[in-house]
Amino acid sequence: MTAIRVLIADDQMMVRQGFTVLLNAEPGIEVVGQAVDGADAVEKVAELDPDVVLMDIRMPRLGGIEATRAVTEGEGATVRVLVLTTFDLDEYVYEALRAGASGFLLKDASAEELAHAVRVVAKGEALLAPNITKRLIAEFARVSAAPRAQLKARTGELTERETEVLALIAQGLSNTEIAACLVVAEQTVKSHVGRILSKLGLRDRTQAAVHAYETGLVRPTGY
Length: 223
Hints:
The protein is α/β, with parallel strands linked by helices. The protein has 11 helices and 5 strands.
């Protein structure tokens, strides 16, 4: 099995070195480089072609949000970005998701949590700090612009079952949980998810969840 290639972008040397040691000790994960700021991260992504970038938000020259947008919006871009932050409700996390990040993790995460996050994001799945997943996306929806007609029109291209699956993705359910909920095979759910992402022009499950909230398909409750 090919190792997951990781680039660590953070302006603090101790953070970069610490994460490098932790991840290189994990089977199936290889840190292929380090970047000292956002601009360096953009250059290193082009040079090293990593699968996942651990991206700090606040960095000199070019911040993590701008760097995330730069590496995820390019034609044929496949790299996944996992945003690192100190605060679970950092206002910039919302903008990072909008810019194309696949999720975020707190910097005080354990080695096990860090490795798990890298593996999940590398597979194209959503990864947000588990204890605040729904709260974060719901708050993102609150501070984002009102649902746009264009987004709603794209959602209208989905079949009834695909729309149902999209709503369940936005609620944080895994493919296994969605399959159990709809009483269908997990492979069927995977096929639905693939078609949803393709029809809506979205990168992964995180972007699908944000889309569902932005268009009003799923509304935040209890926050």
